[in-house]
Amino acid sequence: MAKTDFDELMSIGIDIGKDTFHVVGFDTDGQLVLRRQIKRLALIAVFEKLPRCIVGMEACLSAHFVSRSLRKMGFEPRIIPAIYVKPFIKGQKNDYNDAEAIAEAALRPNLTVVPEKSQEQLDLQALHRVRSRLVSRRTATINQIRAFLIEQGITVRKGLRALKNSFEAILKEREDEISPRMRTILIGLYGDWLWLDERIDTVSKEIEQISRTEENCVNVMTIPGIGPMISTAMVAAVGTGEAFERGRDFAAWVGLVPRQYSTGGRTVLGRITKRGSRYLRMLFVQAAKVILMRTNRWPDFSFGGWLTKAAERMNRNKLAVALANKLARMAWSILRHKSAFDAPRDEVAIGV
């Protein structure tokens, strides 16, 4: 293609891969004028030769880095959720068809795009992901210790603390029942457990330190039940919340709203959608359960009256999800308007 074919480029779609990118571009008449595969390292060199226009890409691991790089060059990058690209795919799925669908989706005037994350947000998000992985590994290690003990006919009551407090006593009192090799295996697993505890504590302290110095986190933590984990995870995920027009939109993104199937004027609501951020949804539900455990504190909160009435008509799990939805909406409002919650903070509020 001649270089002049690129002069009227209107939109470009990038299908981001690990080592290569597939690039498709349309001109102002909607004609395909660019279709090529480039190496990741050649991204800057290739786009320097192209006219500045809209550049769409699916939300993925390196999308924010690519978006920042292109924005510095004068392009208008748009990070699009994959679910909004799928309707535009024509024919069978391949890299060029995906890039073409992204280029078309990027031109939609009412398209919801993913806000570009700053390096600080990515760092904070990485801390949460590391902590989540460590907690998962610790749970797996504890479960394996329990499983090996059960194979030896030894059961321990539920709870992490119960197993930790009784582990050394079990090895000592049941020495005749546990073989030397199994004893060595259990001691090794227990050492892994202690190491994971130490790593989790280190990462958690770093997250808590950030929550005390970040203004948005401090504001969000004034909400009952919300502590350093939720506040920092929320700031890492949505920044100041400008991507959402209202708290209901944020709650829907977290997946705390009923699944809707409506047709012919008949509305059918089911279980929650569980779309969006699974991690944030889990944290909000945990925060809700912390509040529900202390019924004597409900009157201290501005939403205490609503919570009392809701408890009369909902079972415990449904009430926890409803409260998590309310907490998410309040958290978005505080984050977006840079304000504090209207109820005083107390020990119940220091939760997740």
From TrEMBL:
**Superkingdom field:** Bacteria
The record's InterPro entries line, in alphabetical order, gives: Transp_IS110-like_N (IPR002525), Transpos_IS110 (IPR047650), Transposase_20 (IPR003346)
Give the transmembrane region(s): none
Q: Which intervals hold domain Transposase IS116/IS110/IS902 C-terminal? A: 219-298
**GO BP term (any one):** DNA transposition
Please list the residue ranges annotated as the Transposase IS110-like N-terminal domain. 12-149
| One MF annotation (Gene Ontology) recorded for this entry | transposase activity
Checking PANTHER family in the record gives: PUTATIVE TRANSPOSASE FOR IS117-RELATED (PTHR33055:SF3), TRANSPOSASE FOR INSERTION SEQUENCE ELEMENT IS1111A (PTHR33055)
The cross-references to NCBIfam families, in alphabetical order and at most eight, read: transpos_IS110
Protein known as: Transposase IS116/IS110/IS902
Species: Roseibium aggregatum (strain ATCC 25650 / DSM 13394 / JCM 20685 / NBRC 16684 / NCIMB 2208 / IAM 12614 / B1) (Stappia aggregata)
